[in-house]
């Protein structure tokens, strides 16, 4: 595979990783946001029952760890979100529908995180565009001075020190 094709392949892979992160975080927010809202609503109706308070904390934990797993690209949080969702099975009847989706989202996030870490090590990250790579090379070449410019700077530096003529 030549260089341009590799950059294009990596650019498409990075776009897929970002799409997975966005979809997973929307699923966490939508699914467990509805569950969180329902828990708050039923807690108010039941005059602040402690079991609903535990359910609120669990749902908020799933949302938080799911987001952190996706946007911070941390596998620990991505694996922790489905585990907290499994704990939710003991407190909520709605969790029977949500937990398999949370497990699938956790697995997808971990796979995307591993692909993202591999892409970080590839040449051209995060743009994977030859135009940006050429600009970086041009910028580096611009900072390299030719021998004549170096000699001129040395002469100017030496002449600046001799202007003080304290000996006369």
TrEMBL record:
The chain crosses the membrane at residues 20-45, 52-71, 83-112. The keyword Membrane applies. Keywords: Membrane, Transmembrane, Transmembrane helix. This is Uncharacterized protein. It comes from Ruminococcus flavefaciens 007c.
